[in-house]
Design goal:
Layout: E1 36-39, E2 54-57, E3 65-68, E4 75-77, H1 81-89, H2 98-105, E5 128-132, E6 138-143, E7 147-150, H3 154-163, H4 166-201, H5 210-228
Antiparallel strand pairs: 1-2, 2-3, 3-4, 4-7, 5-6, 6-7
Length: 229
Amino acid sequence: MANCKNCGAALTGTLLVCEYCHTRQDVDLSMIHRFTVEAPRSDRFCPRCHIPLQTIDLHLEKKFLIERCERCLGLFFDPGELEALLEKAVTNVRAVDPQRLREVQNVKRSHEYPVSYIDCPVCRRLMNRVNLGSRSGVIADQCREHGMWLDGGELRQVMEWLKAGGNLVQKEKELEMARLALEQEKKNLQFDRIDMAFSHSRPEPDRPNEDLELSLLPLIGRLLKKLFQ
């Protein structure tokens, strides 16, 4: 897990404030080697603090610009930028660390902000809430046209989840669901074939035998006579 940049204690909860020395952590960008402020004020606004976001360059091999709020440390990514950052920042994860994964998944963030829909920093329309990963514990806010917003500390939580093997667990579940779906499809095909085979072997239903009905008429007549005698 992440550690306090001031006293070194393990960070818990939202990962933003150390419970021991109360130092606020810029945890989301602490693992990036360096970043520079490209523009102190952009035309995009923080959906939490309602102040202009600054544009920063993460210098991932080349210029990599995202928006960041100085006050709440929230980050805004254009479409595809978050995936590119995670691919660069988290590599060579080949095994699942169950204990570390449980610690990340148990981080509770609901008390920091009330559950609500927030505006896109670009178009100011309400964004959709999306679950990042199957059980990363992070509910991000996404504008389909302009990008994704992560509150302060959420990027680090997603990275910790990936490092603990959360993505491997998710892929295993997806493969298992695909396998079960394939098995069910095979069973459905077998049932269809069996049903088709039986449909060809079934005899056609007997048609009403008119001769039989006619042969019963004398008997019915004799019975009626006995009833009325």
